[in-house]
């Protein structure tokens, strides 16, 4: 990554750490942030050495959301038709950055500390697993800013926590703590501090990475397909995915490892 990139990428075995790297801006999201997501996640998807991605952030804040200074051009007093169309295209490009996270076949874990508001919630809602330190504060902040959340929260978060809790959070724009996030199912792990957060994220990522990558990635694809298309099309898709890969070397390795009472070593073949 370039020196002025909003991201830092580090590999640790089959785990890739993607770190938001603009602590001086509270890791707010500008246009280069979204274009970076569109570039990075297809790369992760195509890299066989990447099995799991963990997202974390430098500094005091996970993300304060959209960079409102950079987005100020969207709020012209009397925008012409071409300005409005350009704004629509910019929003869609930002959406595609978030979509790239969800579409990536590799599981994505969000490790959140401190504030994660607005577009930050959009982003972690596109991840597969969310965990947080006890100082984490979340907010679907847009209604308090006279905006409609448009980067995926309204579409994804109800499927994670249910419409009852979601509508309260989205319509009020209020803050909710890591404890509440755990209680309503937005996060799955609650950690004492950043160090324990990252250690637990690493352990969970390693546990996923030790599984067959074909099975893990296929499971994510079937989950997303079933969410969009329903139970019976999802069942057909699952049958198709298994028929496409079975038999495979990873299944043979799993059986042999079980018989030999040793951990399997999957190769994704």
UniProtKB/TrEMBL annotation:
Q: What molecular function does GO assign, one term?
A: isomerase activity
Which UniProt keywords are listed?
Fatty acid metabolism, Isomerase, Lipid metabolism
**Pathway in which this enzyme or protein is active:** Lipid metabolism; fatty acid beta-oxidation
An example GO biological process term is: fatty acid beta-oxidation
Q: Which residues cross the membrane?
A: none
Entry similarity comment? Belongs to the enoyl-CoA hydratase/isomerase family.
PANTHER family named among the record's database cross-references: ENOYL-COA HYDRATASE
**UniProt-listed NCBIfam families:** PRK06142.1
How is this protein named in the record?
A: Crotonase/enoyl-CoA hydratase family protein
